[in-house]
Amino acid sequence: MTDVIIVGGGPAGLSAALFTAKNGLETAVFDTDKTWMHKAHLFNYLGVRSLGGDEYMKIARGQVEDRGADIHLGEPVTAVESADDGFRVETEDESYEATYVVLATGADRSLAEDAELDIAFDDEGAIDVDIDMETSVENLYATGAMVRAEEWQAVIAAGDGASAALNILSKEKGEHFHDFDTPADVPDLRSE
């Protein structure tokens, strides 16, 4: 049983994984590596002057792995269903269980549409979520282009992933959780 399974390894999924893994939750990311970021170049991402999408993905994956997340690259998820204490996530090779699931598959909503869960969609065909990115199914989150008919931007998706992760962390800690680091909290990152 894993604490958090994230389906999708673009900006939304990796952002969620960064927060949950960094704060002690066992986190697994299932990534087909088909993110639009491989076609992108970031000029409009705050804090980034100019960065190719491939480079961004390399840095983001490394950061997430450094914080303890397990990335299953090239292991596509085929189904998400309810289980006794959360969810069962199926791949072609294995079955995994988690307390929380974050869907971060970009504009591809087929996994949510095919799920045997009662996931609500809005009038435009996007997944209906609350302000914390939680769907109509408790402990199931959706992010990025899955929840918007348009407005598909890496920075928005990363914010959605962070929002979902902070809500998960708040639930786990039993109080509102705010992830804020000071310079004294940061390990020496020169070796990374």
Give structural notes:
Helices cover 27% and strands 23% of the residues. With 192 residues, it is an alpha/beta fold. Strand 8, helix 3 and strand 9 form a beta-alpha-beta unit. Helix 1 packs parallel to helix 2. The mean pLDDT is 92.
Task: Summarize the entry for a quick read.
The chain has 192 residues and is of the alpha/beta class.
Order of helices and strands: EHEEEHEEEEHEH
The class by helix and strand makeup works out as alpha/beta
Total of DSSP H or I helical runs spanning 4+ residues: 4
Major sheet details: 7 strands, mixed
The separation of the N and C termini measures: 29 Å
- The helix content, as a percent range, equals 25-40%
Mean pLDDT: 92
Number of strands: 9
Rg over CA atoms? 16 Å
Shape: globular
Low-confidence stretches: none
Strand content bin: 15-25%
Break the fold down into its secondary structure elements and pairings:
Blueprint: E1 2-7, H1 11-22, E2 27-31, E3 41-42, E4 51-52, H2 53-66, E5 70-73, E6 77-83, E7 86-91, E8 95-103, H3 110-114, E9 140-142, H4 154-173
Parallel strand pairs: 1-2, 1-8, 2-5, 8-9
Antiparallel strand pairs: 3-4, 6-7, 7-8
Helix pairs in contact: 1-2, 1-4
